[in-house]
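hi! just following up on the protien thing from before. the input was this:
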Amino acid sequence: MSGRRMPGSCAAALSAALLGTALCLAACVTPPPPPDTGTALSMHGRQEGTAAAKAAVEALLVRGAPDSLARARALAESSGTLAPSDVLVYRWYAVELGRLAYPERLGTAPVVPEPPSGHPWARAFADARTGRIGAPREGADPLELLALASALFRGDSKETTRSAAQALDLLAQTRLESPLADHLRGVIAERSGNLSFARESYVAAFVSAPDCYPALFGAARVLIALGRPQEAVDMLSASRGSFGEMPGWVRLMALALYDSGRYDEAGPYVLRVLREDPLDSRILLVRADMLIRAGDYRQAVPLLDAYGAVDPADRRYLLLRGRVAWEGSRNKDEAMRYFRKLLSIYPEDAETLLAAARVLSQGTAAERGEAYLMAGRVLAKNPADAGALRILLAEEIRRKDWTAALVTLERLRAADPEYKDRAAMHLVYRSAGRVEDAFRVASEWRTAAPDSEEARIAYIRSLIDRKDAAGARDLIARALTEKGSARFRSSLYFLQSLVQPNDEAALNSLRSSLVENVQNLEALTAMYDIYMRQKDAQKARFYLRQALAVAPDDPGLARRREELIRLGLAP
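and the predicted 3d structure came back as:
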């Protein structure tokens, strides 16, 4: 019925509704009239019997569901009051409507002779088969109106949609129950973008007629479009036994599982669809995305090539192209070409902004600045986006903006309780003056990864920050007697310099640090600081030059460089 409203479509409620409906339908089937006993009827009685038989058959036909169409044929063929010509017309109407509305189940039904060419139903179906209809004629009966509206199965032009809507409005005025009409109202609403009403119409049709599978598919399709794919999965799963072999069901299950992030489960359905229709462009794109997620960029490329011939401006296509260029071959320029094209169409698309920011965050200082701004735009829409917060945090660490980094770190840990980058956490906490938090992180890290050189260095740093020089010296001495990487030993000697009793002892430790790793920035900077403190600007200048060669954009080195320039000693 027009204007029908249904509750939410959770699987349990839907299953209960379907069961109740099925029982109701079974109980309410209109039995065929009793057989003719041979007793003569008056002409008035015959007319009344014929009218009642026609009304019963036409009520079933106007319902439009597969079961009701079959029941209409059986009722007409078993009637003792209908004329043979009426039986023929009703049988033809049931077959014709079934072939249009349910091609997967009824599309191969034998064609029966059509009624006379001038019959209104014949004209209506002739137009409907082309997908192009005009406005309903005045005085059209319910079955003619339903036949006209069935053009929506073949055409989607504005003219056809408008005329079908008029036919359905007139049909609703008859107050005859028609699940198929409810389904067609859903089609019109879906095409116009009114997804909520479309869903209600589809669910109403399917609950009223559980064999009206186009309504089930429409409801699932709309739920996916509404961003509620798990509900679509539940709805489709409840109907697996009845419709699970249908290509439309398989395709929708593939899309619903994919949009739910259940990629492993979606995979077999995706492959089944492509075996049946290798040119299904949307499923091709889904398959390409799944391959990219699995890191199989080589197999994804030909699928993207095929889709690009269909719709090269598609949002998902451009995003995947950019990801393949970056993740598959680290081609920054090509990746950004796709991302910038996409952002020119959808400038505030958060997924694209984040993908582009990840690429730019690996580039020059200017590109990192652009990445920082892009991540900020994502966070303006979703303040808890962990990916954007990671980009902000990495750049704030590079800039040594510890106040901002601390705020971002706390936001990131709140947004992603599983965040476990202990190196970043320790660095930010200790650099922002949160000594005890840094020590806690280092202790947890050391316990979780006792063989990690990074964890051992972080723990010793925290001991020094907590003024436990003796504990730090003991751990450094023991670690220097063990095997370790040159970078690890260089860091140990640097930390040893921090707990030495005087500058000369510290310089000896720093020289040992640089022997192990000549690019140890902390050691080079510390050498500069000691020599400046000793007023030996020439030696300080020597070490600052080496430090600048390692990190030319380091803000701490920039301040030291200005210090030398004021002394007339440009490094």
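Residues 1-44 have pLDDT under 50 and may be disordered.
The radius of gyration is 37 Å.
cheers
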